[in-house]
Amino acid sequence: DNLLANVAYQTPVGRIAGFAYLLDLEQAPTDSSTTIGLRYSGERTLSEIKLSGFVTLARQEDRGDNPLTFRDDYLAAELTATLRQWSVGAGIEVLEGDGVKGFSTPLATLHKFQGWADKFTTTPVDGIDDRYLSVAYARKPLGGLDSLSATAVYHQFEAERVSADFGSEVDLLVQARWRNWSALLKYADYQADGFATDTRKFWAQLEYVY
């Protein structure tokens, strides 16, 4: 029994959005929660450099028949600078934990955020502090290709509640498009330092759209 709401307003200096996610999950009662938050996003061009970024703040509490009692906060901020085909970004994402329950996102596409090795699909009970750097290149067209893009991301993971390292990860992605074809190569390398185990993953994908 879930209620999701999002209200946004575009201002001269950026977009401000408020959101509320009220989740009552019968088959996952410990993830039943009320999450209320605010997000700001904007962009600005300085000479030839385009700056874009966002800041998100949220608070989550137990809801419905959740047997746990908790109150965890969330913070995310990112800034990206783009010059022609190149983009460089830096960000931080912090999901609090109280030692029993970490800030949960049961409706999220978790693979997209804290590393493609999927070591943090559930927030640790001591929370997680994810700081990352990214470099990307995109060009269309290039040679005989309609488009070519490449991305590299480095993550450093720590516990939010206690002083403990979790590990680090390097993610690499190359994608090309030609007419109705697209090809993708993707790699994730997680180096454990007190959480989970060393993990490497590799993807190769070929797609044709008719």
Quick overview of this protein structure:
The protein has no helices and 11 strands. The protein has 210 residues and is mainly beta.
Strand and helix map with partners:
Blueprint: E1 3-11, E2 14-23, E3 33-46, E4 49-62, E5 71-83, E6 86-95, E7 128-139, E8 147-158, E9 165-178, E10 181-192, E11 199-208
Antiparallel strand pairs: 1-2, 2-3, 3-4, 4-5, 5-6, 6-7, 7-8, 8-9, 9-10, 10-11
List key phrases describing it.
210 residues; 11-stranded antiparallel beta sheet; 11 strands
Which percent band covers the strand fraction?
A: over 45%
Structural class: mainly beta
Shape: globular
End-to-end separation in angstroms reads 38 Å
Instruction: Tell me the series of helices and strands, N- to C-terminal.
Output: EEEEEEEEEEE
The overall pLDDT average reads 96
Number of helical regions: 0
Strand order of the largest sheet: 1-2-3-4-5-6-7-8-9-10-11
The poorly predicted ranges are: none
What fraction, in percent, of the residue positions are helical? under 10%
DSSP E strands, number: 11
Q: What kind of sheet is the major sheet?
A: 11 strands, antiparallel
